[in-house]
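Class prep. Write one:
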Amino acid sequence: MDARDFFATVVTENYHEAKADPANFRKLWNALVSMNSVAEYLALNHLGYGSVLRKDIDTEAANIRKIYVDLNAVKECADTLKHVRRHIGQQLTGTSTGVVSGDPTSWELQDGSTLYDLRGGPRSGIRDD
């Protein structure tokens, strides 16, 4: 699956499902996690899909996230949700343990000084624009 197919088949569908059912945490989780993979898919596309080193994919994905800065917020939210807690060194930087799947008002993640509202809005991991 190339980047275009992944985006059209997985990311777009997950996004539309999450937007259509905003009280469904599973759909939101799927949308964020699939959106987080976009930078790596684009990196592989830029690198020609051949046999490439992981560090080259990571470097290119980081460059893509510099261009499309909203992907950084998506990455922070998706990584925190996937791994439950985020650490930089020994410092806890984010946790998803306060998220209650049946309570959309709890769908926020605090990462240092940044608040991510998973439901949408200007400081969120998933947006309308």
